[in-house]
Design a protein that fits this description.
The chain is mainly α and 314 residues long. The chain has helices at 3-30, 36-41, 47-57, 63-73, 89-124, 129-142, 146-160, 181-207, 210-217, 222-260, 265-274, 278-306. It contains twelve helices and no strands. Helix 10 (222-260) runs parallel beside helix 11 and helix 10 runs antiparallel to helix 12 (278-306). 31% of the residues are buried. Residues 97-299 form the ABC transmembrane type-1 domain.
Length: 314
């Protein structure tokens, strides 16, 4: 199968996945207990006041009708209006997307090169003290939950030593890079452990394969064998793991933003759920769904391209 036909099939599947997710999210949010109109009416609300709020917000209309209207607005990036403030949901997304995108992009940019470097070093020193040390550190870090690691880092480097800001309170996240150091360490710790182990295992298998032995018999330089022929095959499972890591990253960012008080999409989501601001929750769900599907699509295409081929090295 060619890359173009494979990409077309994956894009079609991705669109169906997004549609399924946004549909499920809408009706799950509709099933949440409570009533936004009652919450907005305040203490001891008057039934007439509640009915007025419901009518003004369109909550008195059937859910399928509101879903159809909401769905047709998504291609125009019209996610509706906040029930709590009346502001467009897009304003909430634009206000919180900056810190979240910076955290997520920096994590992904640093994740693959560091993971590949650690995995290749361990594979080239298989069984050595370095390999055993990297394995021990990976297992230890992978067993620590994100919130626990965040609390330890804040206590040690933010409070006791005072080397880095413990939280983003009173700081401009986009203008002060030091604020992002501890959150990035938390977000990178577990994915680096898992991906580097995949790279190590893939590299060890590739270096022991028949085509590598054949390349050595042909007199090809060892550096070229390792990094041009063995490494691409070792990267294929790692790329797939990066896609799964991105799924985890969406949840990890919410935890990290809450612990470090970073005003990103995670904070917006927590506030919207607490206020039962359904359109904001639905808009964030659409953003997360599209991001997840897009990243998995790219990972599948890269993995398809890097998949081991049958041709002989020459």
């Amino acid at each position: 199968m060619s890359l173009a036909s494979y990409a077309a099939r994956r894009v079609a599947l991705g669109l169906m996945q997004v549609l399924a997710v946004v549909t499920l999210v809408f009706f799950l949010v509709e099933a949440l207990p409570g009533d936004a109109a009652v919450a907005l009416a305040g203490d001891n609300p008057d039934p007439a006041r509640i009915a007025q709020i419901r009518a003004a917000m369109g909550l008195d209309r059937p859910a399928p009708e509101r879903f159809a209207e909401w769905l047709t607005g998504l291609p125009r990036l019209d996610f509706g209006e906040s029930l709590a403030s009346g502001r467009p949901v897009a304003q909430f997304l634009s206000a919180g997307i900056g810190p979240t995108v910076v955290l997520a992009v920096l994590t992904l940019v640093l994740l693959l090169p560091i993971s590949v470097l650690v995995g290749v070093l361990a594979a080239l020193r298989e069984g050595s003290l370095l390999d055993r040390a990297l394995t021990s550190v990976s297992v230890a870090l992978h067993s620590i939950p994100e919130f626990a690691l965040a609390v330890v880092l804040i206590a040690v480097f933010g409070v006791q030593l005072g080397w880095l800001p413990p939280t983003a309170v009173g700081s401009d996240v986009l203008a002060e890079p030091a604020v992002l150091v501890l959150p990035l360490v938390v977000l990178l710790a577990r994915p680096i452990c898992s991906i580097s182990r995949l790279v190590r295992a893939g590299m060890v298998d590739a270096l022991a394969s028949d085509y590598v032995r054949h390349a050595r018999r042909l007199g090809i330089a060892e550096t070229r064998i390792r990094f041009r022929h063995a490494l691409p095959n070792a990267l294929s499972p790692a790329v797939q793991q990066v896609a799964r890591t991105t799924d985890w990253l969406l949840g990890g960012v919410i935890v990290v933003e809450a612990v470090f008080v970073i005003p990103g999409l995670g904070t917006v989501l927590v506030d919207a759920v607490a206020a039962r601001d359904l359109p904001v929750v639905q808009g964030l769900a659409v953003v997360f769904a599209v991001t997840t599907v897009a990243v998995n699509l790219v990972a599948d295409l890269v993995g398809f391209r890097l998949a081991p081929r049958a041709e002989v090295v020459a």
